[in-house]
Amino acid sequence: xxxxxxxxxxxxxxxxxxxxxxxxxxxxxxxxxxxxxxxxxxxxxxxxxxxxxxxxxxxxxxxxxxxxxxxxxxxxxxxxxxxxxxxxxxxxxxxxxxxxxxxxxx
Amino acid sequence: xxxxxxxxxxxxxxxxxxxxxxxxxxxxxxxxxxxxxxxxxxxxxxxxxxxxxxxxxxxxxxxxxxxxxxxxxxxxxxxxxxxxxxxxxxxxxxxxxxxxxxxxxx
Amino acid sequence: xxxxxxxxxxxxxxxxxxxxxxxxxxxxxxxxxxxxxxxxxxxxxxxxxxxxxxxxxxxxxxxxxxxxxxxxxxxxxxxxxxxxxxxxxxxxxxxxxxxxxxxxxx
Lengths: 106, 106, 106
What we know:
Three copies of one chain form a homotrimer.
Chain A: E1 3-9, E2 14-20, H1 24-37, H2 54-63, E3 67-73, E4 76-77, E5 83-89, E6 99-105
């Protein structure tokens, strides 16, 4: 079977990213970087009724990805050695997240 | 019918994004954020002949997305409740924009 | 033949982007912008054993793209006039990079 797998997250306050999968400190540093890149409580924010982390979560989602398309060959996803697929949660409170996977090919 | 819809914008100075679709202030805040993240008239910019908003528009496009792939199930796009597909224009002047939609599946 | 071409790069320290393909200064400015947006040697970085350009390369990858999906019609990729597909290298040292192209359609 050859084709593609499309992974899609049905939300606007988290992302789906491909990231380095071996060293947890890489994810730690990524989160710290995004905390600085998209701060909370910007004085010009108007979309604030759901809390200080709401608007930054939408911006972080736009700056990253909602779907990933991964090639399939010989019935296996062709991820590189260091590539992992991660859900990148941008809200502080716990949320249930729905991910849809679609496989196309023959 | 199940498969995917691929939405693709044929330009390098606007983006196609999935964004919160309910509250217009979320889009307002997103635009203000990008105005600050990618300023015009950086002293090191060399690609300036088409105006001050030209190079920032390419950078904003690279930081966001040129295509979105949305799963289809039972003949409907499986967007989440709050997900909308938006063209994010980065130029000041009015432009005609071409979007190509490709549906794959059976 | 109509469908899509998916271009996917199997690495977490470079990106695959669609970018303005005519004026090399646009790519120059993009690189200078990313040098400033994601600096090296941030004091909070922990993922540093592979060198100062390692963690910034993962962040730049997450801020851009690992794959592009381009529509195909009449057996040709439907790129816009100014769109080119580029590998955006984020490491300083030379690396071999693997790109997988998957064509789907009929």
